[in-house]
Specification:
The complex is a heterodimer. By secondary structure, chain A is mainly α. Chain A has a single domain, classed as Orthogonal Bundle (ABC transporter involved in vitamin B12 uptake, BtuC). By secondary structure, chain B is mainly α. Chain B starts with a helix and ends in a 10-residue tail after the last helix. Classes of the chains: A mainly alpha, B mainly alpha.
């Protein structure tokens, strides 16, 4: 289907081993190295913050891509699991006395369990209805969880959210002395731990999508009736996939909390986050796991830089309309977004891959 | 008999809260619920056309709602400043002011609808994912344009004096704006039924949804009809937006987004493409919200969702939806 030569799996593996790690593997290693170097090379907090948020949201978007791109389920409730993870860790660490590593672990685990249970329930209830209904039901659930977080303020802190203190080496006050001349602060330790977790999640997910289960999910995505006729338990596998993705999202949510040390309904739950995730997955390319990083990088960088466009208003003569126009950088963003969807519907990575494939095909027409 | 079942269920559910409250309170809540339901129906009716009939997931519906509200707001403001129509005690002038505002809202949204359909929706018919994305982009742009033109803050709607306040009918409080909304909603409902089921245009649109190619082969320019339906749906969104703004006595750029989810829920409860369904769905949502808000204030937030999940579990195609 993908124009790949039909070798047996064993032969494929032998072929791969002979060729050694491909260019994409080196690209991934380089990306990881780049992330690892950012806090050492660029000492500004803004750059570090941007880098780790790209990693965090990249992992979140990748987990969404597992659902939407590899399984073909359009869900609008994915950000909810991210919020569950963030809130679970925040509650576990912040509400039960002095924080310890045990609290942190319990937070992560409970976030994962809650997410898994909710994902299974929602899937069992609503995956049987038409695809578009599923999207709306998940949207309603996400909206509801956001409202719940605001209303149940005794537990969640309401609109103000929670800002827990983290234990041990993650605490702001932690000082690990100097390692190779670099001051080892709590923030730096958190950076590397979170980066490591995100990298690990990426590995797990990239393995998941090429596993037999992942392949079967893609078969369901491409032709559900056919997969069902072949004896694939489509319903159960779809639930399995969305549950897996929800657990990943919960872990990522916990990481987000560890970095930001703050969570409120608007920043972690509900529709605004979901929109961001949706935009990121489109910009990166649906069905390209690693495109998620690109999508996250583009959107988050644009968020950071576009508001600075206000300086441009001075160049435009400083008229009031020009000022209003540039103050509303979201407008520019919206127009750009529509253009991207129109002209690069496969996203950055999808389009790049297509171009590469075409070039390769052009070079050797037989393959 | 089978078609009557949903109606019976709705009526039974509507009477159920009587067990928990006095009849007078019940009547007040029912009137408020009906009014709220009608306001929601005004928004949802446009979505029924666009989402239900044409199967286009139009997330820009909320933005069109806001645009309608702002267009009407500008018209009312202008009339009030130049001629004082909203502040004058004359009922006739007040009604005229509201009519002009409604016309302005409908006109603006109609034009916007045509532009939207031509420019961005037409290339993505039949592709849900891209419809969502494109219309989301359009929502961002439209909302930001509101912020540029009218400023980012909430503003007070100059509601004509005759329509402010409430009547007190036998101890039952009846707000005036919802009464207008109810009559407007009924008119829209009747108009849509007539248009879709009794006219040639409605026939062609319904046939075009079933099989666009066939209708084109028979010599009808289906694209033009679809543009018209989209524009009409947009105009209905604007109508709902203006009435909502008059009801709330304020306008804000993000007002549409909040209503969009309500409207989607209603269309899904009612069944895709069924005008009667979205009327019933809207009334159910309005009524149950008011009853539950009185009986169990904390649970009111989840009641719409619970309603939707319940309906979809019993009837996966919605109350009045054809099993497609």
């Amino acid at each position: 289907m993908r124009g790949a030569p039909t070798l047996s799996p064993i032969a494929q593996r032998a072929e791969r081993a002979r060729r050694g790690p491909g260019p994409t593997v080196w690209l991934r290693v380089a990306a990881l190295a780049l992330f690892a170097l950012v806090p050492l090379v660029i000492p500004s907090f803004q750059a570090t913050d941007l880098a780790i948020k790209i990693a965090i949201f990249g992992a979140l978007v990748a987990s969404y891509d597992v659902v939407i791109g590899y399984t073909g389920i359009v869900s609008f409730g994915h950000a909810m699991y991210f919020g569950f993870g963030a809130y679970a860790v925040a509650l576990a660490v912040g509400r039960f006395g002095a924080p310890t590593y045990g609290h942190l672990l319990v937070g992560f685990l409970s976030g994962m369990v809650v997410s898994a249970v909710v994902a299974v329930l929602i899937g069992a209830f609503s995956l049987r209805v038409k695809a578009i209904f599923f999207a709306m039901i998940t949207l309603a659930f996400a909206e509801f969880s956001g409202i719940l977080a605001v209303q149940w303020s005794a537990l969640t802190g309401g609109e103000d959210g929670l800002s827990p203190r983290l234990p041990g080496v993650f605490a702001v006050a932690y000082d690990g002395g100097r390692v190779f001349g670099i001051p080892l602060t709590g923030k730096l330790v958190t950076y590397y731990i979170v980066l490591g977790v995100c990298a690990g999640l990426f590995l797990v997910m990239s393995r998941f999508v090429v596993s037999p289960l992942g392949r079967t999910l893609q078969a369901i995505r491409d032709n559900e009736l056919r997969a069902e006729a072949l004896g694939v338990p489509t319903f159960a596998l779809q639930i399995a996939s969305s549950t897996f993705a929800s657990v990943v999202a919960a872990i990522v949510g916990g990481c987000y909390l560890m970095w930001v040390r703050y969570v409120n309904p608007e920043s972690a739950l509900g529709v605004p986050v979901m929109l961001d995730v949706l935009l990121m997955v489109i910009i990166g390319g649906i069905g390209t796991l690693w495109g998620s990083l690109i999508g996250a990088a583009v959107l988050l960088t644009a968020r950071l830089l576009l508001p600075d466009l206000r300086g441009l208003a001075v160049l435009l003569g400083g008229s009031e309309l020009a000022q209003r126009l540039t103050a509303r950088w979201l407008l520019i963003f919206g127009v750009l977004f529509i253009l991207v969807v129109f002209f690069f519907p496969k996203g950055v990575l999808g389009t790049a891959r297509e171009a590469l494939r075409r070039r390769r095909l052009g070079a050797t027409p037989e393959s | 008999m089978k078609r009557a079942a949903p109606v019976v269920i709705v009526l039974a559910l509507a009477l159920l809260p009587l067990l928990g409250m006095e009849p007078r309170v019940y009547l007040t809540l029912t009137v408020a619920g009906l009014a709220m339901g009608m306001l929601i129906f005004l928004v949802a009716s446009g979505l029924t056309l666009i989402f239900g009939l044409m199967d286009v997931l139009n997330f820009a519906h909320g933005a069109l709602f806001s645009w309608g509200a702002y267009a009407g707001f500008s018209a009312l403001l202008l009339l009030n400043r130049r001629a004082g129509w909203a502040e004058s005690p004359s009922v006739l002038l007040n009604a005229l002011a509201l009519l002009v505002a409604l016309a302005a809202a409908v006109l603006v949204a109609f034009v916007l609808g045509i532009v939207l359909e031509r420019a961005i929706v037409r290339p993505v018919y039949g592709q849900h994912m891209f419809q969502i994305l494109i219309t989301l982009g359009a929502t961002i742009v439209l909302e930001e344009m509101i912020r540029i033109v009218w400023g980012p803050n909430d503003q007070v709607m100059p509601v004509p004096v005759s329509f402010q306040g409430s009547w007190d009918v036998a101890d039952v409080i009846v707000l005036r704006v919802p009464v207008i909304a109810i009559s407007l909603g009924l008119a829209v409902y009747a108009g849509m039924l007539l248009l879709l089921h009794k006219t040639r245009v409605g026939l062609i649109v319904r046939a075009g949804v079933e099989s666009g190619e066939m209708v084109q082969v028979l010599g009808h320019n289906i694209h033009r009809y679809f543009t018209g339906v989209f524009a009409l749906g947009s105009a209905l969104a604007a109508l709902g937006g203006l009435m909502w703004a008059v009801f709330r006595q304020s306008v804000s750029p993000a007002m549409g987004g909040e209503q969009l989810i309500f409207a989607f829920i209603v269309v899904i409860i009612g069944g895709l493409g069924s005008v009667t369904g979205s009327l019933v769905g809207a009334l159910m949502v309005g009524l149950s919200y008011n009853y539950v808000a009185f009986l169990l204030p904390k649970a009111a937030l989840g009641v719409n969702m619970a309603l939707m999940v319940l309906v979809l579990l019993i009837r996966p195609t919605g109350l009045f939806g054809a099993s497609r």
